[in-house]
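anyone seen this seq b4? input:
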Amino acid sequence: MPCRVEPVPRRPSTTGPLPPALEWIAGDLDALEAAGLERPMRVRDGRQAAEVSLDGRRLLNFGSNDYLGYAGDVRLTKAASRAACAEGFGAGASPLVSGHSTAHAALEAAIANLLDVPAAVVFPSGFAANSATIAALVGPGDMVVSDERNHASIIDGCRLSRATVAVYPHRDVAALERILAGSHARRRLVVSDTLFSMDGTIAPLADLAAVAERHGAMLLVDEAHATGVFGAHGSGLVEETGCADGVHVRTGTLSKALGAAGGFVAGHAELIRFLRHHARAWIFSTAHPPAIAGAARCAIDLVASEPERRRELLAQAAAFRERLTSGGLDLGGAEAQIVPVVAGSADAAVALGKRLADLGFFVPAIRPPSVPNGRSLVRASLSWHHGEADLMRLADALVAAR
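predicted toks r here
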């Protein structure tokens, strides 16, 4: 019989007025609500799958980044159980002290093998991997140049670095070239997502690599939404585009297509050695549980043995996008399994999400600060679990709601 976690009954609300020092919070929350930017906290019951139960409502699930359908796969559950039985659940300490287990070492070796690089290091999260790595590579006197639509973890890493930060328009290689040509910084770092999480657009990796090389800059790319989905071996868009020689640092996550948790950085062995001494979120965080490392390693093995999942996912995504564009919808240039439909205002995106939920689809509304003002959207994250009939039903519903 499968294990179930029974919900803890909510305590009756006895919250009184805010203390005087916190009274400003009430005004901030009122402003969020008035702008249509307050976000509900939904409770999911059961595993991630083609359908999901949210607040007791059963919906077709287009709100998960579980692209290959591994998050709820029993094979990952069993791998996690084996690792937990062998090494306990908690890691107990930071990796440099005693938290680095045989499960973590095996996972890092598997990541390096998947990406065909000498070494990799695992972080507690993809957010930690990006923010800590950027802050380790550049600092005061340096420059980091970032795509305007990069993930928040990249933005925060730029801020933490205390380097000069220059932001170039989305995928504008000419603007990037001008910025680098005008810089006399000690070290320069170019940072970009490979597959942008809100837009479903793909970075011009070959051009980024060429510009970085011309100006002697480092190039870091985040493969969070591409790992497992693109490339002959499933390692991501760096492999898909043949740009490995021009990319110096690859970051990614184990929580999306791989269905587990944690982040990673991969590349030259000396780079990884450097990060083990300078990436503060790795040095000073307790290692994530060995059970999670066991599950992630299992997922990497499945990516190798089940290439049909990524092929089928991308084929279904292409057909889905074609149906929407032929229906006149604005997808913002989406090119992959992340398919946004631009609604405009935050209220319009929320209203569209509610209409879709009434029809049985969970397609979350995305609003500022995740997207620019006036570009609020609903985002369909496609999974291998979704059948053609499910996708066409959603496509028809979106076109009809236009």
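The first strand starts at residue 44 and ends at 45. The CA atoms of residues 70 and 302 lie 9 Å apart. kinda curious what u guys think
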